[in-house]
Design brief:
Strand content of chain A: under 5%
Helix content of chain A: over 70%
CATH class of the largest domain in chain A: Mainly Alpha
Number of helices of chain A: 6
Distance between the termini of chain A: 36 Å
CATH architecture of the largest domain in chain A: Orthogonal Bundle
Structural class of chain A: mainly alpha
Largest interface: A-B, 35 and 35 residues
Largest sheet of chain A: none
Number of strands of chain A: 0
Number of domains of chain A: 2
Shape of chain A: elongated
CATH topology of the largest domain in chain A: Arc Repressor Mutant, subunit A
CATH superfamily of the largest domain in chain A: Winged helix-like DNA-binding domain superfamily/Winged helix DNA-binding domain
Oligomer: homodimer
């Protein structure tokens, strides 16, 4: 049996639109709607084994895309950089750091974003 | 005949790793190394028509991926936001804007980055 994998669910958010229509439907039912293999099989009019096959195919495609494109990984990095920037802005606004220091920190974090190439 | 499309060349930078190995080789030869169809055909040991077919297949795949994932488009947006942030940092450093104003601008641009969801 599978174990539902939260990483797959996360990747589905990023790459779901690229999957074949039927694979996407089964993946959404399994990961987003939390249906069982049997319930999906009934809904799709195919065997449980057929559902299992489509899910496996979808998982492999998602993992392949993430390995090649790294969109989810980059998203996490950009998000972390964004949080740093917001924290600097907050400290700057509250007068907790000198403008020059804030400017340098903003420049550094921003250059990190650019160099990530996303 | 094709016209070489700079957009395709740009998308190749983003999604090239996802293409089938042979399609990738032909796309690289055509777009990056600027070889002719005949030269690529000779190198690959296939017909010009075969090369043309692989390039068309690659182009369709790249355009499909960009339509679904928008990585190149997002990259442009993130880059524009990054340039804004660097400009704010520069003005802050030069004392051309008040810290509070800079803080608000940084927060606004950063929230744009986050909301883009990349």
């Amino acid at each position: 049996m599978f174990e539902k994998n939260m990483k797959i669910s996360y990747l589905l958010d990023f790459y779901g639109d690229v999957l074949d229509e039927r694979v996407r439907a089964v993946m959404d039912a399994y990961y987003d709607d939390d249906l069982s293999l049997s319930e999906i099989a009934d809904g799709e009019g195919i065997s449980r084994q057929g559902v299992r096959h489509l899910i496996k195919k979808g998982e492999e495609h998602l993992l392949f895309l993430e390995q090649k494109l790294g969109l989810a990984h980059h998203h996490g990095e950009i998000r972390a950089s964004a949080l740093s920037l917001l924290a600097v802005a907050e400290r700057l606004k509250n007068g907790e750091i000198a403008p020059e220091v804030a400017a340098d920190q903003i420049t550094e974090v921003t250059n990190t974003i650019v160099s990530k190439g996303v």
